[in-house]
Amino acid sequence: MDTNTGLSEETIAEIASHYEAIIRLIGEDPTREGLVKTPMRAARALAFATRGYRQDADEIINEALFENDGARIIIVKNIEFHSLCEHHILPFFGTISVGYLPGEKTIGLSKLARLVDFYARRLQVQERLTAQICRLIGEKLGAKGVIASCTASHLCMRMRGVEKQAAVTTTLDWTGEFDSRPDIRAEFLRSISADATGCATL
């Protein structure tokens, strides 16, 4: 088992065989010097980019939950992510900012970034990614509310189709008290729009 991808060597080799067939079908020679190792490299890259399917959220959290010391809202800004568009299997990438209203527990800050990757490292659409992160954090923390803002660039818009190089997409989702409290939604949006980056406790 490849510890970086969660797939067996046999499965990676099978994926590589399909890449070899694709290379041949598009008119290239997979035995050419520069392409001989490409099928296996591409298979490992795809396995790594989709490793979220083979991860467990509870293992990621790994008991890194702590008693809440009284913070009203916790925000981690600009968590970088890379994902694959499920429609074209081309990358989209950007940042996600997450805020939550803790109940009895808070979570180690690095775990929030790992939970983002848990869903980003799959075939995805940005809208669902944003919603899944909100719901997962709310469920695992027992948070009173979670909000997420995701801004991303999509290569399926830059490399094909409309070919718009400057286009970016922003999605927002929230749960719990963020639904009925426009004031705290506004507080979150003000915070992530500020020049400072990183984490904040309000």
Write the layout of secondary structure elements.
Layout: H1 9-25, H2 38-49, H3 57-61, E1 65-67, E2 74-85, E3 91-101, E4 105-107, H4 109-120, E5 123-124, H5 126-141, E6 145-154, H6 155-158, E7 169-174, H7 177-180, H8 182-193, E8 199-201
Parallel strand pairs: 2-5
Antiparallel strand pairs: 1-4, 2-3, 2-8, 3-6, 6-7
List keywords for this structure.
alpha+beta, 8 helices, two-stranded antiparallel sheet
Number of helices: 8
Tell me the span between the first and last alpha carbons: 43 Å
Biggest beta sheet attributes:
6 strands, mixed
Overall pLDDT score: 93
Structural class: alpha+beta
> Rg, please?
20 Å
Strand content: 15-25%
* H-E order: HHHEEEEHEHEHEHHE
What does the overall shape look like?
flat
Pick out the low-confidence regions: none
- The share of residues in helices is 40-55%
For the secondary structure, the number of strands is 8
Structure characterization notes:
This protein has helices at residues 9-25, 38-49, 57-61, 109-120, 126-141, 155-158, 177-180, 182-193; strands at 65-67, 74-85, 91-101, 105-107, 123-124, 145-154, 169-174, 199-201. With 202 residues, the protein is an alpha+beta fold. The strands form two sheets. Strands 2, 3, 5, 6, 7 and 8 form a six-stranded mixed β-sheet that branches. The chain has a two-stranded antiparallel sheet with strand order 1-4. A hairpin with a 5-residue loop joins strand 2 (74-85) and strand 3. Helix 4 packs across helix 5. It is flat, with a radius of gyration of 20 Å. The protein starts with 8 loop residues before the first helix and ends with a strand.
